[in-house]
Specification:
Layout: E1 3-9, E2 24-30, E3 38-47, E4 57-58, E5 62-63, E6 68-70, E7 81-90, E8 102-105, H1 151-160
Antiparallel strand pairs: 1-2, 2-6, 3-4, 3-5, 3-7, 7-8
């Protein structure tokens, strides 16, 4: 007797996010003798959360040796989830038990189904007169309120700037990363080329490299 196994939808096991309106349902076969072949099959599909006694689509008995069939049921909608099984008939007319169920889930089939926003640079990033990574004054100084002030980005900019905040800039009003008002806080203590501490200079406490 032939037994179907390893069911696949669009050649994938239990896929998520399918965008094929008529997915291909396929399976492999194994038997207990030589010369066995499939002569017919029957595929049944159910909505994943529906009554299992009422298939969403039933192919009926279809003669054929190909272990694949294209879905021909009602139109599929975004985010629907399905389970399906197959039974096959061999050359002696003996039917297999129904296979272990497989599953697939539809993705978003129409542009109107999208509800998220594209990830993009903040509005000020395209300003031609600002150096890369420098926000204008109106962005604000609260790191928690601005995507550009996230902890990860702050640490990254500090690393690139030799341990200093890379988001500060004179005249920006306040630093988007550390929140210090530019023009009131001195640069971090260090030594000049002569070995003496520099005088306090207006600007954020994490002053960017190369800013004088």
């Amino acid at each position: 007797m032939l037994v179907p196994y390893d069911l696949a939808t669009e050649y994938r096991r239990d896929p998520l996010g399918l965008d094929a309106p008529r997915p291909r349902l396929g399976w492999r076969l194994r038997g207990d003798g030589r010369g066995q072949r499939q002569t017919a099959y029957r595929v049944r599909v159910w909505l994943a959360d529906a009554d299992p006694g009422r298939p969403w689509w039933d192919s009926g008995v279809v003669g054929g040796r190909e272990p694949v069939v294209r879905y021909e049921g009602p139109a599929l909608a975004s985010r629907q989830a399905f389970v399906w099984t197959v039974a096959v008939c061999d050359e002696r007319g003996q039917w297999s038990p129904e296979s272990t169920p497989a599953r697939w889930e539809m993705g978003l089939l129409a542009s109107d189904d999208w509800s998220a926003q594209w990830i993009a640079a903040p509005p000020w990033a395209a300003a031609a007169d600002l150096p890369a990574g420098v926000p204008p004054a109106e962005v604000g100084a609260n790191p928690a309120a601005n995507a550009v002030g996230s902890t990860a980005e702050w640490e990254e900019s500090r690393s690139r700037a030799g341990g200093r905040c890379g988001s500060c800039w004179p005249g920006a009003g306040s630093c988007v990363s550390c929140g210090s008002p530019t023009g009131s806080t001195p640069r971090p203590s260090s030594t000049t080329s002569s070995g003496s501490p520099p005088a306090a200079t207006s600007g954020c406490s994490w002053w960017p490299s190369g800013v004088s």
